[in-house]
Design goal:
Layout lengths: L2 H4 L2 E5 L3 H13 L3 E5 L2 H10 L9 E4 L9 H11 L4 E5 L4 H8 L6 E3 L4 H36 L4 E5 L5 E4 L1 H7 L19 H14 L1 E9 L5 E12 L5 E10 H21 L4 H16 L3 E7 L5 E7 L1 H7 L7 E4 L8 H5 L3 E3 L2 H4 L15 E8 L2 E9 L7 H62 L3 H26 L6 E2 H14 L5 E6 L4 E2 L1 H21 L7 E10 L2 E8 L5 H4 L3 E3 L12 H12 L3 E5 L5 E7 L1
Parallel strand pairs: 1-2, 1-3, 3-4, 4-5, 18-20
Antiparallel strand pairs: 6-7, 6-10, 8-9, 9-10, 11-12, 11-16, 12-13, 14-15, 15-16, 17-19, 20-21, 21-24, 22-23, 23-24
Helix pairs in contact: 3-4, 9-10, 9-14, 10-14, 14-15, 15-16, 15-17, 16-17, 17-19
Length: 640
């Protein structure tokens, strides 16, 4: 699409109606659709309201003198602050002050009214092409800034070189990958100098120049002598006419990726290992992994005593113990002031690398039985401002690097946290076991005391002749039995925080069933249900009292019958049903149906046993319903 066909809608700002009509006819004769604005304000409104996705104005033709109010120069300034559009002044003023004022506005020309239409149209077309060129230039600059920012901030190393392989640009990631201080150490040098295999790098560059691209892996040599496996992709950059202009290369540090993957795998493996092993075994595993990832032959972890003057020679790696050192793995204390340079992190609180240990450690101080060191890397573990431990590796065949330091520091911090957590968990488990044993002992003693009380009540009952007194003592023994059964369950069980209500009621009902005559049967439909022991105790008393009442009142004489006990779970708690098919206890209460919700229910007027049931039910916010039609039925609804 050409400039002329794109420029087809004009906003003409002219306050003189006749002039405006004449100029519009001229513009429309030239093929331009024209809209007239009779004032500066109207022009600003039209431009502010236009939809950029629809048919917007391609150019503004502005008169300078617009009568009262804002003049054309100020209006043009506001328009250009509002949007980017080519603007031409079309005026009859030729005075110098008008021209100089117009120059202060970023316009695209200054035309006199009455000029030949061909001259006006030519000026308009040149102004529009200039506007397009400026717009494209702005876009190009913005695109360049975006690309430059992306390249400069890329985590991948990127470099530009001329056709001779001389570097003209490198980003920060390139500088960091090779270990340089800044780009001044790199720019102007041949790209092949940065590789361990110079011939291989030169061959890769030749293929990139000949074929337009090359990709593969090369071994980079850093400034510290460390080599890194790097994935390389290079492309030849050509001019518009197809002639080669230079090379661009992107470099990805494969060593770092592999190490990060290995660190993650090691971390996950150690977490699994930690579940089934003690602290010392876990620490040995950490040291073995640190040795493997750094290519070391020795690994050690030593804790620092509270006085910060003594090291506990705690743990060595598997290889250190088996092949390197003739010394015990733990239990010895070593004064810090007798250590050589390997204890420096305790003083500096910083990691240290000694790649020429023998030359630096002239006094040669090491623990007895320790293998000679050629190089070492030691990092401190700092907690609450104090060095609490050091972890080190040694005797790597190659030089230790800052990346090795990062790996070892990572392992040291992880190891310390896991060991501390493991020890804290062991302490908590020990305390819990002690608590469980103590509670079981308490339950056991309470059970014995209650059994003694029951025995005394039984002996006292044997000495009495009064039937009512013997009956009261017998009922008291039954209540004590409900507690004895619960304490027996808690003492023998593995969970002292919860009791199985179904299991408890089964044992209680069995005890009660054994004391009943054969004509009275108890059927129980129970399910396992974990409940707080205090609530279980209360429910046991309730069940004992209701069964006892049924036996006393529902089956007079030699009447046979059945008592049902049913435990049901519900969405928001559970319910307990105790029912019999006897004569009921209506004669004793005077009512046949009621609820604990009633103010003066017959249930409230019962004897001590029913009063005890009422109190325990209210204590646990339960609701009790009962019916005495065709026997007695009690239903207790307990919330969670």
């Amino acid at each position: 699409m050409t400039a002329e066909t794109r420029m087809n809608r004009i906003l003409l700002v002219e306050d003189e109606p006749l002039i405006a009509i004449s100029e519009r006819k001229m513009l429309e004769a030239g093929g331009y659709r024209t809209r007239i604005a009779a004032s500066a304000d109207e022009a600003l409104i039209l431009l502010a309201d236009e939809d950029p996705d629809e048919d917007s104005f391609d150019m503004v033709l502005m008169d300078i003198d617009l009568g009262p109010g804002m003049d054309g120069i100020e209006c043009a300034r506001r328009i250009l602050n509002m949007k980017q559009v080519p603007l031409l002044f079309l005026t009859s003023h030729t005075e110098a002050d008008f021209a100089s004022r117009a120059e202060t506005v970023s316009s695209f020309g200054y035309m006199l009214k009455g000029s030949a239409p061909a001259a006006i149209f030519a000026t308009m077309r040149m102004a529009f092409r200039l506007f397009q060129a400026q717009t494209e230039n702005i876009r190009s600059r913005e695109e360049y800034r975006r690309v430059y920012s992306a390249v400069a901030g890329s985590i991948n190393a990127i470099a530009l070189a001329d056709m001779d392989g001389i570097l003209t640009y490198v980003n920060k990631s390139f500088i960091d990958l090779w270990g340089f201080a800044d780009e001044s150490e790199v720019i102007g040098r041949n790209a092949n100098e940065f590789w361990a295999d110079v011939d291989g790098a030169a061959e890769a560059m030749s293929k990139s120049i000949a074929d337009g691209r090359w990709e593969g892996e090369l071994l980079a040599r850093r400034t510290d002598g460390i080599t890194r496996q790097v994935y390389v992709r290079t492309n030849r950059v050509d001019n518009e006419d197809g002639t080669p202009n230079g090379l661009v290369g992107a470099f990805l540090d494969m060593s770092s990726l592999k190490i990060r993957q290995q660190l993650t795998e090691a971390w996950l493996n150690i977490l699994d290992y930690a579940e089934e092993h003690d602290s010392r075994e876990i620490m040995t595993r950490f040291l073995d992994e640190a040795e493997k990832l750094t290519g070391s032959c020795i690994g050690f972890f030593h804790s620092v005593d509270e006085d910060e003057e003594t090291i506990d020679l705690q743990t060595w790696s598997t290889n250190t113990i088996q092949a390197m050192c003739d010394m015990e793995a733990s239990g010895k204390h070593y004064p810090i002031d007798q250590g050589g340079i390997w204890v420096e992190p305790l003083k500096t609180r910083e990691p240290v690398i000694h790649n020429d240990y023998a030359a630096l450690n002239r006094d040669g101080r090491l623990p007895d039985g320790h293998t000679p060191l050629t190089r070492e890397l030691v990092v401190p573990v700092i907690r609450s401002g104090k060095v609490v431990a050091i972890l080190g590796v040694g005797n790597k065949p190659e030089l230790y690097s800052t990346e090795d330091m990062s790996i070892v520091q990572h392992f040291a911090d992880m190891a310390f946290e896991i060991i501390m957590r493991k020890q804290a968990d062991a302490k908590i488990r020990k305390l819990l076991r002690e608590k469980e044993l103590l509670l079981k002992e308490v339950h056991h003693r309470i059970k014995n005391n209650m059994f003694n009380i029951r025995s005394m009540l039984s002996l006292q009952s044997d000495e009495l002749d009064n039937p009512e007194a013997k009956k009261a003592l017998s009922e008291a023994q039954g209540r004590i039995d409900t507690m004895l059964i619960l304490y027996q369950q808690l003492y023998q069980g593995s969970n002292i925080e919860q009791a199985d209500l179904g299991e408890y009621l089964e044992a209680l009902i069995t005890e009660i069933r054994n004391s009943l005559p054969p004509r009275i049967q108890i059927e129980a439909l129970l399910h396992p249900l974990e409940v707080d022991p205090n609530k279980v105790f209360a429910i046991g008393i309730i069940v004992n009292e209701l069964i006892t009442n049924a036996v006393k009142y529902a089956f007079p004489g030699e009447r046979a019958g059945k008592i049902e006990v049913e435990l049901r779970t519900a969405a928001e708690g559970f319910s307990l049903r105790i029912a019999d098919n006897g004569v009921g206890i209506a004669d004793a209460t005077g009512e046949t149906e009621s609820s604990i919700d009633g103010e003066e229910s017959a249930y409230r007027s019962g004897g001590f046993g029913l009063e005890l049931v009422r109190s325990l039910t209210a204590q646990y916010s339960a609701r009790l319903r009962f019916s005495m039609t065709g026997g007695s039925e009690f239903i207790l609804d307990f919330p969670d």
